[in-house]
Amino acid sequence: MFKKTCLTLAVLALGGCRIVSQQELADLKSPPNPHMANMDKTWQQSIVPQVVTKARPAAELMSALKAAKD
Question: What is the DSSP track for the chain?
């Protein structure tokens, strides 16, 4: 019983592991799009302030959506 439990735990622990080649590892460390490496900085400095400044009350937004002809 103890061996089965240990084997089950080992299989579950290593189930998410995978072998990655050196090239894949290098690609993961340096993404093809350099802007993706700074995504958290871009998010905090550009996207969040824009969303905050352009935010509208939900009722106003819903009435504008109902009035749209689309």
Answer: -HHHHHHHHHHHHHTT-----HHHHHHHHS-SSHHHHTHHHHIIIIIHHHHHHT---HHHHHHHHHHS--
Domain ranges within the chain, ordered by starting residue: 20-70
- What's the pTM? 0.36
Token digits of residue 35? 């802007």
31: left (phi over 0), alpha (psi -120 to 50) or beta: beta
Per-residue pLDDT tens digits of the chain, which is 70 residues long: 888 898 888 888 877 777 778 888 887 777 677 777 788 888 889 889 998 999 889 999 899 889 988 7
Q: Nearest-5° angle of CA 12, CA 18, CA 21? A: 165
